[in-house]
C-alpha cells in the first residue's frame, strides 16, 4: 500500500468534512473548470464527465498526488434539474415543488493517480421522498438553516432530514456530496488503504 499525497479536487467544505472521517492529511485544490451542461447531455453523463474533468484538472496541478474529485446533480422525478437556489425565494419555490414528491441525486466520484496511470469512477444514486410540506414548514426550515448553496434547498446532514419521508441509497454519505463507501473502495484500488494509513499515523 502507498502513502501517496492525497488531494481533494474540490473547494466544498461539505466534501472536506466527509473525507476527514477517513483521511486527515489531504490538501484541497479547486478544479476551476467550466461546469456547464452540454447540449442533450443526460444527468448521469454530466456527473461522470465533470467528476473526471475535475480530477484531471487538479492532476495537472498536482501530478504526483492521488486526486479525489466528485460531482453531484439533483433532479425531480420528472427529470428537471434542481440547482443551488442561491436565495430564499428560489429555495422556497424548490421546496414547494418538491412537497410530497421524489427527488433523485446522482453523485459521482473519480480517483485519479496520473503518475500510475490509474483512473476509476463510480456513481451512486440516492432517492428521496419528501413529506407534504406546509408553507410554514418551509419558512421555518429556510430561516433556520439557509441552505442556499445546496442543490434542492436542503441539508440532509442537518435539519433538512425533517423534510423527508425516506431516503434510499447504497452509500449514506452520497447525498451530502461525496460517496464515502465508493471513495474508500476506489482509494484501495489505487493502493491506499485508509485503515492502514490511519493506524500508521497513530503509531
Describe the overall structure.
The radius of gyration is 18 Å and the shape is globular. Helix 3 (88-98) crosses helix 4 (135-145). It starts with 5 loop residues before the first strand and ends with a helix. Strands 1, 2, 3, 4, 5, 6 and 7 form a seven-stranded mixed sheet that branches. The protein is α/β, with parallel strands linked by helices and 203 residues long. The chain has helices at 13-19, 43-61, 88-98, 135-145, 180-189, 194-202; strands spanning 6-8, 26-28, 66-76, 81-82, 102-113, 118-130, 164-169.
How are the secondary structure elements laid out?
Layout: E1 6-8, H1 13-19, E2 26-28, H2 43-61, E3 66-76, E4 81-82, H3 88-98, E5 102-113, E6 118-130, H4 135-145, E7 164-169, H5 180-189, H6 194-202
Parallel strand pairs: 1-2, 1-3
Antiparallel strand pairs: 3-4, 3-5, 5-6, 6-7
Helix pairs in contact: 3-4
Amino acid at each position: 500500500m502507498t502513502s501517496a499525497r492525497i488531494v481533494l479536487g474540490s473547494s466544498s467544505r461539505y466534501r472536506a468534512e466527509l473525507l476527514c472521517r477517513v483521511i486527515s492529511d489531504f490538501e484541497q485544490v479547486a478544479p476551476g473548470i467550466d461546469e456547464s451542461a452540454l447540449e442533450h447531455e443526460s444527468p448521469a453523463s454530466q456527473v461522470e464527465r465533470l467528476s473526471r474533468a475535475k480530477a484531471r484538472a487538479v492532476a495537472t496541478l498536482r501530478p504526483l498526488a492521488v486526486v479525489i474529485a466528485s460531482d453531484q446533480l439533483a433532479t425531480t422525478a420528472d427529470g428537471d434539474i434542481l440547482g443551488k437556489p442561491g436565495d430564499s425565494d428560489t429555495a422556497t419555490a424548490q421546496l414547494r415543488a418538491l412537497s410530497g414528491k421524489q427527488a433523485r441525486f446522482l453523485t459521482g466520484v473519480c480517483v485519479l493517480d496520473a503518475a500510475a496511470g490509474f483512473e476509476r469512477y463510480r456513481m451512486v444514486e440516492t432517492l428521496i421522498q419528501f413529506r407534504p410540506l406546509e408553507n410554514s414548514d418551509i419558512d421555518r426550515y429556510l430561516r433556520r438553516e439557509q441552505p442556499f448553496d445546496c442543490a434542492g434547498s436542503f441539508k440532509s446532514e442537518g435539519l433538512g432530514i425533517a423534510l423527508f419521508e425516506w431516503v434510499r441509497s447504497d452509500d449514506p454519505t452520497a447525498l451530502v456530496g461525496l460517496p464515502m463507501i465508493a471513495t474508500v473502495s476506489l482509494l484501495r484500488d489505487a493502493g491506499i488503504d485508509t485503515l492502514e494509513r490511519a493506524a500508521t499515523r497513530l503509531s
